[in-house]
Amino acid sequence: MSRECICLVYFYPMKTILPLLASLFLVACHSSNQLDMKAEEKIRTVLAEQQECWNKGDIDCFMQGYWNSDSLRFIGKSGVNYGWQATLDNYKKSYPDKAAMGSLYFELLNLEPLGTEHFLVTGKWKLIREADEPNGLFTLIWKRFGNEWKIIYDHSS
């Protein structure tokens, strides 16, 4: 360490450094909260778009909220599906027409950041159809891809 640096440390009173450090910490926390709020807003928007697509009977549109990758995981009543295409095929098999799809409603229970690149979302889903009203819970793991958020893991029961 140079002599000038040592002198600066000795001559900077602690009562000046502590408020500076506290301010830097608050700015970092505020920035993190702002990022979380923006991410949460984007995730809520994607879920609203998915709900709208489903209610129009458009499974292909609904699937745009999922990561288009062979590494996507979907766990449901029929077991584990690996991959975007397998998940799409399973949805189309299970819901062959608008009547089978009914109207979908989400109720979000918790959105929790898992660092800056992932979010954990839990909620309830409900289908309203002419003959019945199936419902259940879901846990989603979301990942940031540039400016977009996609579901990379879905466990729905």
Structural class: alpha+beta
Beta percentage is: 25-35%
Placed side by side, the strands forming the largest sheet appear as 2-1-6-5-4-3
**Number of distinct helices:** 5
CATH architecture: Roll
Global outline: globular
Listing every helix as H and every strand as E from the N terminus to the C terminus, the arrangement reads: HHHEEHHEEEE
**Total domain units:** 1
CATH topology: Nuclear Transport Factor 2, Chain: A
Q: Which CATH class applies here?
A: Alpha Beta
Helix percentage range: 40-55%
Rg computed from alpha carbons, rounded to a whole number of angstroms = 23 Å
Mean pLDDT: 86
- Are there runs of 5+ residues with pLDDT below 50, and where? 1-12, 24-32
Distance between the termini: 60 Å
Describe the structure using short key phrases.
globular; disordered N terminus; 6-stranded mixed sheet; 157 residues; 45% helix; Nuclear Transport Factor 2, Chain: A; 5 helices; alpha+beta
Descriptive report:
With 157 residues, the protein is α+β, with helices and mostly antiparallel strands. The protein has one domain (40-156): Nuclear Transport Factor 2, Chain: A (Roll). The protein is 45% helix and 32% strand. It is built from five helices and six strands; from the N terminus they run H-H-H-E-E-H-H-E-E-E-E. The protein has helices at 3-11, 14-55, 59-62, 84-94, 98-101, and strands spanning 73-76, 79-82, 103-113, 118-128, 135-145, 148-156. It has a six-stranded mixed β-sheet with strand order 2-1-6-5-4-3, with helices on one face. The model is unreliable at 1-12 and 24-32 (pLDDT under 50).
